[in-house]
Input
Amino acid sequence: MISLDIIKRAAELIKNQVIRTPLVHSPSLSHRFGGNIFLKMENLQKTGSFKIRGATYKLLSMSSREGVSEVVAASAGNHAQGVALAATNAGLLSTIVMPEWASISKQEATKAYGGKVVCFGQSLTESLTKARQLAENNKRFIHPFDDPDIIIGQGTIGLEIIEDLKDVNMILVPIGGGGLISGIASAVKSVRPDIRIMGIQAAACPSARASLREGKPVRVASRQSIADGISVKQVGNHTYEIIKQLVDDLVLVEEEDIAAAMLMLLEQKKILAEGSGAVGLAALLNGSIQVPSKANVVLLISGGNVDSPLLGRILRQGLMKNGRIMRFEVTLEDSPGSLSRLLSRVASMKANVLHIYHDRNLKDLSIYRTLVDLEIETRSREHLDEVATDLQKAGYKLIIK
Output
């Protein structure tokens, strides 16, 4: 296992190249879930993610840098950026192999930090294989999670948490490959074995859950997930052993839970969290983790790198599911004032019109009728129901989408 002393040495070694991120108390989340909820804001870290910690420690602590001029890594996003910046800071070149589907914004960010991007493969596994092939001669391969040095670097987060909140009772940590939770658990359990370390994994890719059930690391099939940062099909060998010994429990969250958590963090806390960074809150929202009365609970917001188009879709779907956006179609008489009367009725219910689509040219529509597709903004599910009821009482036959 990893000792507390080596994590303390790591914290000292990397302190000038990473941010000591704040631990922020949330009165609103505390009121909602009970206890005292704190947020560890790794979304404010350099490169927008905790990954810079492990990468920086790995490069600064390499037993021998003689002859090493370049490092190679594989990642779809956060590890790529962390390694690129850490290498640049260490005066090394870096080549990052990214899957062909990796977002353009993350490719460009990696380049901006000094990395050379090679797009290869339809999966991270294929990208990892390619990266290992490139790591020869004077190049060094940096694994995203299954490396003791990477785990040690991530463990500095746990050290900061217990220094800033000495009476913490529970820490909720995302699990992908397991490097983050392994490091945090190693640091925290060395000081306070009674602190509960809770792992949160996307149900779309439950590799850690499956591995614990099978008693060894196993590879799982996965679905596409908005928590792409933790969509790792197999945990590491090193990380599995630490998770098995030190993690108290592991729960799964569905895609709608994650989207709801992202929306809540953005709207209520003004925090932009990526899917994997929001899974701790998702576990509270779906009830899979209960907060004990008066307990001090830390949610790790592990990163904030969200593609703008994806964020827009997540927010829109979240608003629709929460009753904040209503879309419906209705047919009206094709006569002056019909649309105006409909809009006046909507306005009288204090709903805000977002989009209108007006179509007379439909095959099965009477030449005396017109189809209106209307999207409105409402305050809540209750307000949405009130608007729909009022329009129906007024004689409008709505088809709610």
Notes: The mean pLDDT is 93. The chain is about 40% helix and 20% strand.
